[in-house]
């Protein structure tokens, strides 16, 4: 039987190429980064970053807010989603400033994945620059001026963003706020004086609880009063309010920590 030159080599190579798609793992199974939304398929982790617009941002606050966001973004892995939203005087006026997933190509699982992978690293780098620029722009819009609001509807805003039973709970929640509730549901006078049990009863009556099973919550910017001097919270009031927020998130299934930084 006469064979054409090179056939003995070509047939095994052809067979190998036909088998490659079946052998490649998830990392190299044909992921293509055509649009920014494609990266979201690479991870089921998500972070909610809430910014209290009823708090006046001085220069230190602005620097801390930008530093905090930078620390959060640095910890994101490829495909992780970040949502940035505002806290206002009423939960219905919350605004979503950003909703995006961190760009990047999945790690190759070996030679087969290197051959079959279709993710453009150049495009991923360009998309990551746009991703960072978009997040920075969303903050730049709000940090220079605070809302002229007489109240701060923190509890119901958190409930609004976390309360959906049909959505997967957030992996992490970062809240940049003084956490001083002052709304038509619970005025500051009541929030600062009522016992914890009574406050939780009001929350339950309004179905304003947080749904945070397994979520890590970090509060940044806590510890100051509403007054113009932004005086430190008296120790007794500080302990009382920490106790309420700890219980609020715990009953939703999460754990909260109060911090001045996101990397500490």
TrEMBL record:
<protein>
    <recommendedName>
        <fullName>Lipoprotein</fullName>
    </recommendedName>
</protein>
<feature type="signal peptide">
    <location>
        <begin position="1"/>
        <end position="24"/>
    </location>
</feature>
<keyword id="KW-0732">Signal</keyword>
